Amino acid sequence: MAETAFTPAQLNEGFVVAIEIVAKAGKEDTIAGALQALVTPTMAEPGVKLFLPFRSPTNPASFFIFELYKNEAGWAAHQTTDHFKAFVETMLPHIAKRERVPYVPYGPNA
Questions:
Q1: pLDDT at 13
Q2: Are 69 and 14 in contact (CB under 8 A)?
Q3: What is the pLDDT of residues 29-45, one digit of tens each?
Q4: Distance CA 44, CA 40 (A)
């Protein structure tokens, strides 16, 4: 994966999706591996700026994903990819909670 750098202004441009995932008991590492496997193909999508999964150090079942797309169309395109569909199909049975919240820039820099 090529290294990419963005200025703060560029990071405030686009469409953000914040995702909270809580794995079912005993499925924590399954979810962790599946999220890690999503990084490379997701970052290769033309509409994606960043795809950053995080895992809580105090609750190994809790994950947070920060997704930054060029625009809302980039998010929509991501949801049509084979890797996204495979994740949803195979991982949803192992997830106790999945909340996706989209955000757009606001304020003087928007």
A1: 81
A2: yes
A3: 999 999 999 999 999 99
A4: 6
Region of 78 (left: φ > 0; alpha: ψ -120 to 50; beta: rest) is alpha
What structural domains does the chain harbor? 23-103 (3.30.70.100)
What pTM was computed for the model?
0.87
Which residue in this structure is represented by tokens 């895992």? 55
> Is the pLDDT reported for residue 18 higher than 80?
yes
Which contiguous run of DSSP H or E holds residue 48?
strand 48-55
Helices (H), the chain: 8-11, 28-43, 72-78, 82-91
Residue 1: band (very low, low, confident or very high) from pLDDT cuts 50, 70, 90 = very low
